[in-house]
């Protein structure tokens, strides 16, 4: 029996690699003859690089760049050969890199992501996949664009700084110095949301509070992104702010659109990189999962995309997640069966601590039901 294990991470407790491995061990404890096909997944956020390193031949490339708080930091990305590279924004400017007490969009920057792109271009990489989910920033990609040569100016003609707070001071932008090598590159952005840059569904109102923004900051950043967006659109003579995904990662989606990049489903890009569809064709059963599943799972999240491929090839697909939302109707339309690993009423801390045990036991019971 061939079983594909293609989960996303259980954020805060288990990586997608760990989830895949635990599921596989549980099934083989019931039937040693099970042939596991492990394809850890991600949808463009934290853990994308880790998933790809397990499933693709690659070279790990290290570099020193600017961290989310402006500090010098050691980071890495991967080269896949043939001038292809994958960079993970969360690995450079991600929210988990910022201590909780310091989470504040005023003090974070995407500058290091621009440095990483420059580093890849210096190596001759010209086909770039960039995962932008999980950022700690709300700067509209200001810092990243500055690192790549864009100039931003305040009302008195001085160059603006690179942090989120500096976005509120930008009155002019100049793209004439943007790194010319970007014109030679194909840049695909792994993005799992379709939010516009501003407004009630924009970067600031939807995601700002998760990054430490107060109500006043949220309103201020929404206004600042609106003004900044208009400056960029006028400079480039393009309409970008309403493009689905422009509001991703605190407006990084908008900045990449300004560079001519293409926003694509993060789950699809990762699935293509790990050759997931071919694995599913050979499978008798597919298992996927994530930390929390609800109606959003079917819209761009990794388990939803895995399920679409499984249904395309008429394979049963099981969702096994940390917890499930109240309304399962949409999930049941896509998955053959949906299960939570919770064994009993528990606090969030207990769920995180017991995730490995609970996942193993639940996967084992599913295996007994299917195989025995």
UniProtKB/TrEMBL annotation:
GO biological process: organic acid phosphorylation
This protein's record includes keyword Metal-binding: no
SUPFAM superfamilies: Glycerate kinase I
InterPro entries: Glyc_kinase_flavodox-like_fold (IPR018193), Glycerate_kinase (IPR004381), Glycerate_kinase_RE-like (IPR018197), Glycerate_kinase_sf (IPR036129)
Domain of life from the UniProt record: Bacteria
GO function terms (MF aspect): glycerate kinase activity
Record Pfam families: Gly_kinase (PF02595)
Assigned keywords, A-Z: Kinase, Transferase
Cell membrane found in the keyword field: no
Similarity annotation: Belongs to the glycerate kinase type-1 family.
Name this polypeptide is given: Glycerate 2-kinase
Organism whose genome encodes this protein: Halobacillus andaensis
Gene: garK
